[in-house]
């Protein structure tokens, strides 16, 4: 195999004992490929973020809920957050126990809330009205409340979840009403949480958010835990040497803040974080095949099988993913050219990468979309009745294994009454 610009995956031996050409021959295209070693490394980095003893990493499984990865996260000693009963269901299958799960609900029905109550899973509610709903369903129960700390961060306005212009969390000024509702229903507030948004590369915003939720915490006497949320960023522009988030510095700063709070609060409290992307993004590469190349009015379009049904991030958030190119035959490319990589979906917005300088690409080349392990497969769809791809794991020994099969045509009609 010829790797034309495969420095990233070569350096971390991403494909283990195989290579992307063989993987596509064996499992088909497009194909999500995950590397177990990288996934485990990221779990461990975050588990060791601070020295504070009562610290728990709740993997935010919405980023990548593949059952095999969840089992590995469990093995690594992580807990999990859940955003829906479906996530709870899969987490239970992966071996997470009720006490390992925090259900961070948002605008849920009474049935959904009951689903978690029946399983004795702690629920975080996101509004005064949902707090009332919980109070009626489970009077005298334990509850967690998501606050909006007034601080937000994120790579796109659609994923900033804290601050005055988002739908999330209870406002700080509503604390007196919160106390009234807690009293009315005899509820025990055991935790509070926040999430400022997704993808910060500068830890200062996170520390600011942490300080803000900790000052909210001082309004309540019996908290068992405080969850500061996720959002830890990864460098998507590795080929341009984008620096990593300085996790060591962030950890040190956070440690100081946590120790100081614990002293002032005067009671053992557990601190939680809720990372999704940081844990799974870099363990995933999405492989696809080049089917056509054409020149249209001065633009070179490289037509692939990676439509936005397979990877939605570029279309939804203008997200950048670095691209590698692999070739079966040993034919070198002469020059690099700016090209626009597109998928096979019926919309002109179906663009994977615009005006990207890449080694001259040929039909049948395989492309690797880096850092696709988070918010990749989980946001894929059957739009245009296309089949969602398969997922493969490169295990710690470097061997490949199918961990989710590709959709079949039968899957497309499974729920019809035929
Ligand atoms: N906790 C809560 C309550 C969240 O809503 C989220 C993400 C997380 C934790 C995990 O955030 P992370 O550590 O992964 O940044 N689809 C978007 C990202 C949406 C994130 C939504 N909430 C993307 O592809 O960039």
Task: Using brief descriptors, characterize the structure shown.
single chain, binds ligand LLP, 418 residues, 10-stranded mixed sheet, 13 helices, alpha/beta
Question: In short, what is this structure?
Answer:
The protein is an alpha/beta fold and 418 residues long. It folds into two domains: 2-34 and 282-412, Lyase, Ornithine Decarboxylase, Chain A, domain 1; 36-279, Alanine racemase (TIM Barrel).
Describe the structure.
- There is one protein chain.
- The chain is an alpha/beta fold and 418 residues long.
- The protein folds into 2 domains: 2-34 and 282-412, Beta Barrel (Lyase, Ornithine Decarboxylase, Chain A, domain 1), CATH 2.40.37.10; 36-279, Alanine racemase (TIM Barrel, Alpha-Beta Barrel), CATH 3.20.20.10.
- Helix content is 29%, strand content 24%.
- The protein contains 13 helices and 19 strands.
- The chain has helices at 7-11, 20-27, 36-47, 67-75, 85-94, 110-118, 128-137, 175-184, 203-217, 247-265, 277-280, 313-317, 409-413; strands at 2-3, 31-35, 55-60, 79-82, 101-104, 122-125, 142-148, 170-171, 188-193, 225-227, 270-273, 284-296, 299-304, 323-327, 336-342, 351-359, 366-369, 390-394, 400-404.
- Strands 1, 2, 12, 13, 14, 15, 16, 17, 18 and 19 form a 10-stranded mixed beta sheet that branches. Strands 3-4-5-6-7-9-10-11 form an 8-stranded parallel beta barrel, surrounded by 5 helices.
- The structure holds ligand LLP.
- Ligand LLP binds next to helix 11 and helix 12.
């Amino acid at each position: 195999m010829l790797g034309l610009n495969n420095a990233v995956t070569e350096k971390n031996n991403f494909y283990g004992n195989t290579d992307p050409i063989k993987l596509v021959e064996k499992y088909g295209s497009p194909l999500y490929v995950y590397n177990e070693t990288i996934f485990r490394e990221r779990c461990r980095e975050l588990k060791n973020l601070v020295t504070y003893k009562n610290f728990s990493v709740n993997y935010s499984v919405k980023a990548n809920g593949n059952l095999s990865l969840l089992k590995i996260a469990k093995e690594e000693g992580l807990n999990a957050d859940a955003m829906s009963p479906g996530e709870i269901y899969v987490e239970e299958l992966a071996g997470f126990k009720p006490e390992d799960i925090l259900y961070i609900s948002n605008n849920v029905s009474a049935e959904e809330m009951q689903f978690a109550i029946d399983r004795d899973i702690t629920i975080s509610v996101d509004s005064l009205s949902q707090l009332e709903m919980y109070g009626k369903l489970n009077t005298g129960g334990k509850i967690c409340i998501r606050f909006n700390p007034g601080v937000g961060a994120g790579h796109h306005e659609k994923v900033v979840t804290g601050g005055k212009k988002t739908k999330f969390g209870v406002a700080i000024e509503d604390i007196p009403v919160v106390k009234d509702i807690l009293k009315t229903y005899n509820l025990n507030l055991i935790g509070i949480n926040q999430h400022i948004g997704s993808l910060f590369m500068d830890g200062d915003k996170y520390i600011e958010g942490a300080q803000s939720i900790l000052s909210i915490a001082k309004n309540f006497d019996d908290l068992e835990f405080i969850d500061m949320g996720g959002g830890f960023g990864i460098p998507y522009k590795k080929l341009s040497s984008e620096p990593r988030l300085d996790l060591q510095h962030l950890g040190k700063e956070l440690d100081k803040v946590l120790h100081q709070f614990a002293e002032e609060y005067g009671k053992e409290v557990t601190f939680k974080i809720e990372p999704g992307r940081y844990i799974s993004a870099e363990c995933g590469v999405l492989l696809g095949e080049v089917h056509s190349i054409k020149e249209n009015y001065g633009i070179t379009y490289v037509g692939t099988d990676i439509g936005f049904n397979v990877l939605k991030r570029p279309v939804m958030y203008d997200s950048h993913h670095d691209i590698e190119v692999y070739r079966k035959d040993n034919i070198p490319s002469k020059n690099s050219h700016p090209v626009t990589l597109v998928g096979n979906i019926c919309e002109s917005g179906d663009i994977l990468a615009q005006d990207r300088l890449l080694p001259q690409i040929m039909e049948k080349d395989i492309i690797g979309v880096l850092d696709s392990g988070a918010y990749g497969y989980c946001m894929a769809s059957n739009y245009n009745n296309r089949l969602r791809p398969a997922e493969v794991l490169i295990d710690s020994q470097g061997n490949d294994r199918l961990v989710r099969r590709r959709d079949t045509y039968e899957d497309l009609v499974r729920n019809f009454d035929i």
